[in-house]
Design a protein that fits this description.
With 318 residues, this protein is mainly alpha-helical. The protein contains 16 helices and no strands.
């Protein structure tokens, strides 16, 4: 718990020290369950500090352990594939990135069936109980009870589509557009609002990035249509990474249309949300992007402010 707290507050060295001590204790007690969770947190800490190769190795180790264990926890398995996809994307291994995200989405498609989700928790709890892992069994039963009182979608799905869309655009832009539009066309009724917003925002970026010559206005208008719908959908889901993506994308489109004051408002709202979500790496990259746009307009003083913010958030992230 202490290592997790340090991870959430970006105290990286303290996080790794606490996790290393926890792992020693877990090994001495032959506590495989907690040892696995500790390794997972280590992988997340490596990724947060930019050591994606070590993060990849750590989460690959976790995946190998999970695949050998019974019972298998599909939620944790999905989390691991999502983490692996992000590490591989940073390492520019596009094919493996897409495969990892597709594996995660395949698991989510099954878990998104509400009745099936409850059955999974019960089954996991019973298997843990049979293996005399009573603490893990209790946790699974409590999750099943909580699920009966709410019908929220899995938030992970929207983020996986976000990263998958980004990975597709890095490897094959035409394939990215075809895939994303296909998901919306054939599966929109199965997707929650936040996931639709995630896909729509990726499509908005596709149109903006392919903003060439005589087609420029057409692409910008199309991007604006997508991001307007994405903002409307994501707003109903509160403050999330996807909501901030939609706001910042709207700001980028406003700048492409020379609507600078409107763009400033959207950028400010999106960056403020990233600050509240404690996502310094995302805030750093988006602040740097905004600073570049300000610089092009000759707003040197404002640009410097956001370049400085990008640098400070980058330091916080590492």
């Amino acid at each position: 718990m202490l290592g997790w707290a340090y991870l959430l507050t970006a105290q990286w060295q303290a996080c790794m020290d606490a996790l290393a001590k926890a792992e020693i204790i877990a090994k001495e007690c032959n506590d495989d369950s907690n040892s696995l969770l500790i390794r997972n947190l280590m992988g997340m800490a490596y990724a947060a500090t930019g050591d994606y190769m070590q993060a990849l190795k750590t989460h690959q180790y976790c995946l190998a352990l999970v695949e050998k264990r019974q019972p298998q926890d599909p939620f944790f398995l999905c989390h691991l594939y999502n983490q692996l996809g992000q590490h591989l994307a940073h390492l520019n291994d596009h094919d493996s990135t897409l495969d990892a995200f597709q594996q995660a989405l395949a698991i989510i498609e099954e878990l998104n069936k509400h009745e099936h989700l409850q059955a999974v928790y019960i089954d996991i709890a019973l298997q843990y109980s049979a293996a005399s892992e009573y603490e893990q069994a209790s946790i699974s039963f409590y999750k099943c009870i909580e699920l009966q009182n709410q019908r929220k979608p899995l938030p992970l799905q929207s983020e996986i589509y976000r990263y998958l869309g980004q990975a597709l655009m890095m490897s094959d832009q035409e394939k990215a557009r075809t895939y994303l539009e296909g998901v919306l066309q054939h599966h929109s009724n199965e997707l929650d609002a936040l996931t639709q917003a995630s896909i729509l925002t990726n499509l908005a970026e596709w149109f903006l990035l392919n903003n060439h010559l005589e087609e420029a206005e057409q692409y910008v208008e199309k991007a604006e249509q997508y991001v307007e719908k994405a903002c409307k959908l994501a707003q109903s889901s509160g403050r999330t990474l996807i909501t901030s993506d939609a706001l910042i994308m709207r700001g980028r489109i406003c700048y492409a249309q020379a609507k600078y004051e409107n763009g400033d408002e959207y950028f400010a709202a999106g960056l403020e949300m990233l600050e509240e979500l404690n996502l310094p790496a995302e805030q750093s990259s988006q602040s740097a992007l905004y600073a570049q746009l300000l610089d092009k307009q000759g707003k040197t003083k404002e640009a410097f402010k956001y370049y400085k913010q990008a640098y400070e958030r980058k330091r916080r992230a590492v």
